[in-house]
Amino acid sequence: MSRLGKGINWNRLVRSRAFWLGAALVVLITVFSVNSIRSMGGEMFSYLVIDFFSTGIFMATPLILTSIGAVFSERSGVVNIGLEGMMLIGAFFGVMVSYFTGSAWLGVLGGMIAGGLTAALHAYVCISHHANQTVSGVAINVFALALTGFLLKAVFHRAGQTDRVTKLANWIMPDFFRNIPIIGDVLGSNTPPVYIALLLVVAAQVVLFHTPLGLRIRACGEHPEAADTVGINVTGTRYFCVILSGVLAGLSGVTLSLGQLSLFKEAMTDGRGYIAIAAMIFGKWTPLGAFLASLFFGLATGFKFISQSWNMTSIPTDFLLMLPYILTMLALAGFVGRLTPPAASGLPYRRRGSV
Amino acid sequence: MSEIDATISPGQVILEMKGITKAFPGIVANSDVDFDLKKGEIHCLLGENGAGKSTLMKILYGLYKQDKGEVFYKGEPLVVNGPADTLRQGIGMVHQHFMLIKPLTVAENLVLGNEPTKYGFLIDKKKAKAELMEISTTFGLAIEPDAKIMDISVGMQQRVEILKALHRGAEVLILDEPTAVLTPQETKELFVIMRKLVHDGKSIIFISHKLKEVMEISDRVTVINHGRIIGSVKTSETSPSQLANMMVGREVELIVHKEPAKPGKEKFRAEGLVAENDRGLPALRGIDLSVRAGEILGVCGVDGNGQTELVQCITGMRRLSAGKVTLNGKDITNMPPKRCFEAGIVHVPEDRQKHGLVLDFTVAENMILQTYNKKPFSRGITLRWDEIKSYARRIISEFDVRTPDEDTKAGSLSGGNQQKAILARELSRTPELIVVAQPTRGLDVGAIEYIHKRLVSERDSGRAVLLVSLELDEIMSLSDRIAVIYEGRIMGTMDIEDATEETLGLMMAGSMPASHKGVM
Ligand SMILES: Nc1ncnc2c1ncn2[C@@H]1O[C@H](COP(=O)(O)OP(=O)(O)OP(=O)(O)O)[C@@H](O)[C@H]1O
Ligand SMILES: [Mg+2]
């Protein structure tokens, strides 16, 4: 952990206001709900914990996938606000492919390719044509909403949502794993993207901080001219990272449509792409940090559901609904200690003098 | 590499540029330039600000593409599609603005683009460090491999740049104004390194505006002016004044002539200034200073002893945690920069790209950064571009800022001309106090002469001038009084007649010379 956690400054994290704020919120919630818990008894309590974490990780998975993609894109120097749209497109094409082929896994592939292609468009406009990255990203979000709405009618002849399609079957872990208390219960059987996301966190952290590719990606996002002078292909590296972020956003969208549901609903991403970007910032542009932040947001959302199903009425649901967004605002307002984005993120690179 | 290498012996031409022409919109930066470099020599490229030195070097390095002309390296035409190609063939460059990735470590910067791996995909950090240690001991350039670039001094950063080039097998090293940002001590160390490198068979192209350095280190000097080569001379057969003459095309006074100061009443006073630096460590620990009308107070010291913070506190860019600043008896402590400016303080900052200019604005826009809302530049809520432009044109020509026109982006001016543009803007006010930090950093001799004369004439017309400089020569030749700063305190203040290089040197190092005990 300590080697992997290199990108995160634990000291800073512990000293940061947001960390304590988050901790305080969790404590607050626990105290509020302690009455309901007390009346439950031991077994009920462990059900509650398991339910809490299973829901949390389930809700966090799309955020994890997208925010890790966002980390790669921004680390290479390209701001990708369009992730929300790429998720939506991924979600739709996943369902469409699954509808026509009857295979959920082909749907996953389709969703990832669709996300990747949308990202390639963003990359082409921003990297090759030096367009404003925020404008392009917002345009992609608007475009995605319109495109999926249109295709919904054109392909499924319905408004609002598609027909039900084959969804991803749960993966079931071997017995020894499922017998581990709590962890086994929480992670014993889940939709596949959950496991993919968890493996991805480790892989992304290793790639970004321990491989030549990762070093080059970071160089492109900090000082592209310097990267260029030592022979790094800045354009290629940025294309790779942006497309990767789109592929992951596509997978994230598919997680919503084929992993959690079995259909596509209009605008079903519901701002998760933006929350994922907040998670990336919250996590200080590291995969591990983005993972923890996503998990945190996921748990906050998850709490909303379990408080309903367990009849905990001491906290207004409206407040719980707001929680992830309040945290996002706090994260964006810079309460997470000093946030230093990659120095060249958002800036197109053009070799000077080659006018 | 080594086989071809054997055919070129010391003293033979290793690199040749023929008929290089390069034009930018509105300006021809290089016009039919011939330049050659011999193996084992230090060849200095000298020229006014904007003469085209950096452009020529960037063409050689592959960052810019020439419109016309050819480059031959070891007798073969050099074909490049980018800097990586040149680097691979043995030409390395240390840029005027460094090409280092600040959050990465020294070792990571060294191997970037060329990383040693283990298990086929992980960076072998041990090996990277070993490679760094090997190259640093071979060339005698000590360095801390695990330090992050942003935490080490400018001198050390430059060392990393040199190591980076050597690590990639550079035979030819281009150093673009390497000494502009170095302290005198660091410059000495650099020269030792350069001598060792040529001794080991490397060849160096060296750019500097400091004639003293050029005379000391180079074997040959080529002078370039307005993009054309004026001529080449052996250093042993020339003199600083001849070089200055070749460069500027007229006699240059290398010494400042000025009448003794006739100081009036006190204009500016700082008492007990205490402040922290960016990292929250104490930078000023109780500074007392005063400047009278009609005098130049020079603040000298080794870099990093609080000069930067002192200037920022006076000009409202940094908060004082204690102390008092007054101008003409009026309290201006911790006023925002705009109010300080309005109270009559003008400021030439040391970091011209960060604090002095908006690089993406035109020169004209930069000229009215503080006065855009004043008459005659604005009327009601609109700007009056005709007034702005004619004002800009006037001060551009008065200060000889070399730019195609006032609509050019400030960022595309040469380094020295960016500096001149700031000086032009600030000095064309009629201020009470002029605060100048490193005013001649990166300026050519002609421009320095002009700026120095100008500062003296501002003094003579009754302004108070606070000059902060790392150049002892500049301090000694301009100041009427000198204050030495050391670890955030003023070690002592003395009149120019009492100052010698030795006493100043001792005080800058923190020890009080016996003869000066109790001068305060
Ligand atoms: N990228 C660019 N775009 C437009 N003009 C440029 C560019 N780079 C340089 N120039 C212009 O070319 C001329 C030569 O600039 P260059 O940087 O080579 O000067 P220099 O000799 O290095 O000067 P200094 O001593 O001030 O660094 C200047 O007039 C400058 O304004
Ligand atoms: Mg230059």
Describe the structure.
The complex is a heterodimer of chains A (355) and B (520). By secondary structure, chain A is mainly alpha-helical. Chain A has helices at residues 10-15, 17-38, 42-75, 83-101, 104-128, 133-156, 175-178, 183-187, 192-210, 212-222, 224-229, 234-260, 272-282, 287-309, 317-332, and strands at residues 171-172, 189-190. Chain A has a single domain, classed as Orthogonal Bundle (ABC transporter involved in vitamin B12 uptake, BtuC). Chain B has 520 residues and is of the alpha/beta class. Chain B has 4 domains: 2-90 and 171-248, P-loop containing nucleotide triphosphate hydrolases (Rossmann fold); 99-170, no CATH class; 255-344 and 431-520, P-loop containing nucleotide triphosphate hydrolases (Rossmann fold), CATH 3.40.50; 355-430, no CATH class. Chain B is built from 18 helices and 24 strands. In chain B, a hairpin with a 2-residue loop joins strand 23 and strand 24 (489-495). Chain B is globular. Chain B starts with a helix and ends in a 12-residue tail after the last helix. Chains A and B meet through helix 10 and helix 11 of A and helix 2, helix 3 and strand 8 of B. The complex binds adenosine-5'-triphosphate and magnesium ion. Magnesium ion (MG) binds at residues 53-54, 96, 176, 414-415 of chain B.
In short:
The complex is a heterodimer of chains A (355) and B (520). By secondary structure, chain A is mainly alpha-helical. Chain A has 15 helices and two strands.
List the helices and strands and how they pair.
The complex is a heterodimer of chains A (355) and B (520).
Chain A: H1 10-15, H2 17-38, H3 42-75, H4 83-101, H5 104-128, H6 133-156, E1 171-172, H7 175-178, H8 183-187, E2 189-190, H9 192-210, H10 212-222, H11 224-229, H12 234-260, H13 272-282, H14 287-309, H15 317-332
Chain B: H1 2-6, E1 13-24, E2 27-38, E3 42-47, H2 53-61, E4 68-73, E5 76-77, H3 83-89, E6 91-94, H4 106-111, E7 117-118, E8 122-123, H5 125-138, H6 154-167, E9 172-176, H7 184-199, E10 203-207, H8 211-217, E11 220-225, E12 228-234, H9 240-248, E13 266-276, E14 282-292, E15 295-300, H10 307-314, E16 322-327, E17 330-331, H11 337-343, E18 345-348, H12 352-356, H13 363-367, E19 378-379, E20 382-383, H14 385-398, H15 415-427, E21 433-437, H16 445-460, E22 464-468, H17 472-478, E23 481-486, E24 489-495, H18 501-508
Parallel strand pairs in B: 3-10, 3-11, 6-9, 9-10, 15-22, 15-23, 18-21, 21-22
Antiparallel strand pairs in B: 1-2, 1-4, 4-5, 7-8, 11-12, 13-14, 13-16, 16-17, 19-20, 23-24
The complex binds adenosine-5'-triphosphate (ATP) and magnesium ion.
